[in-house]
Amino acid sequence: xxxxxxxxxxxxxxxxxxxxMVSGCDQAPPAQASSDASSPPPVEAAVPLIRSIVEWDxxxxxxxxxxxxxxxxxxxxxxxxxxxRDGQIVxxxxxxxxxxxxxxxxxxxxxxxxxxxxQARLALADRELARAERLVATRAISEETAxxxxxxxxEAAADIEATRAGVVIAELNLEFTEIRSPVSxxxxxxxxxxxxxxxxxxxxxxxxxxxxALDPIHFTFTMSEADYLKYGRLHREGALPSSRxxxxxxxxxxxxxxxxAHEGLLDFLDNALDPASGTMRGRAVFPNPDLRLTPGTFAxxxxxxxxxxDATLVPDSAIxxxxxxxxxxxxxADGTVIPxxxxxGPMIDGLRVVRSGLDPTDRVxxxxxxxxxxxxxxxxETTTIQAKAEPVGG
Length: 394
Known about the structure:
This protein has helices spanning 6-24, 30-36, 102-137, 143-175, 225-236; strands spanning 42-46, 49-53, 56-72, 77-82, 89-90, 95-99, 178-180, 185-187, 197-198, 207-224, 248-254, 262-269, 279-286, 298-304, 309-315, 319-322, 325-331, 337-348, 351-356, 364-367, 379-382. It folds into 3 domains: 39-52 and 310-394, conserved putative lor/sdh protein from methanococcus maripaludis s2 fold (Beta Barrel), CATH 2.40.420.20; 56-66 and 212-304, Efflux pump adaptor protein, beta barrel domain (Elongation Factor Tu (Ef-tu), domain 3), CATH 2.40.30; 72-211, CATH 2.40.50.100. The chain is elongated. By secondary structure, it is of the alpha+beta class. The strands form 4 sheets. It has a 6-stranded antiparallel beta sheet. It has a 6-stranded antiparallel β-barrel with strand order 3-10-13-12-11-14. It has a 4-stranded antiparallel beta sheet with strand order 7-6-4-9, with no helix packed on it.
């Protein structure tokens, strides 16, 4: 005598409960049951669709500016003009603010005058040193006098360098009165109105505005430790490109989009897992020529989560559930309904991946499931399983 193992008994009990559940959904009135007793109920069945696929993993994250610049004054003075409209797109090098340049022009003129004076002193020192060199050769003056003139000439040359540096600083300060955009992007509203005194060149320099670069734009998200290890293993096996060299393709869609309309590349993974959450931070970069993608916007991102393989696909509506797991109803050669426990994967093109439990030749009930009672017989109409067309950009 063969004894039933506990696991087998549990599986049989689960399928028996499933049979009761499915058959209970199709209770007909007594009169109708009597009239249909002579013929088995009709169902539509099809063999699973076998298709070469690549699985994608999905994450939620948000877009961030590739560059974010905080504009602050580098010199102090009264704000003379603002040359932009709040919130407009600005190009790199555009003039944004002007600080009153008149004091800085005056300082530049003074520095240049000091340079001219230093150059005149150096010319005089050169002439005096030349005379001293001739006179000391004839012993008309002492060697000490000649040394003093050499020192005076060296001091005049040093003054030249110092005053030239002063001119450069004055030129820079005058240039800093014109605040230009360091990047291309969208500017915020102005934080200071024209006519106010702004402070520059310190840690507490006045905030004028901010600019965010929008093209390209970044997308940041976090993945689990298990996913991170999976991608590393697939890369070592040659099934996936590296997630760190900028060659791994990704796609994203906004919350109001049905298709994966935006394509980019995974360009960064953090150098360590967050010990508090056990997650790894990732970043993708997307072209954004129409500036539709905005920093701070939440979106869904997907990246390749497997190598290419032949998958078994069935409609998700063909899956039934009970306490023991998932199953599909198959039909034997004699029309008998046979439930089969299955292990499921993700949805691909509108169909569910069946990882195990189903043979490619099994006839799966795809329509009329409520009439497919486990152990009963059905009249099968053969059909085929069709995958949905992939949306544009998806």
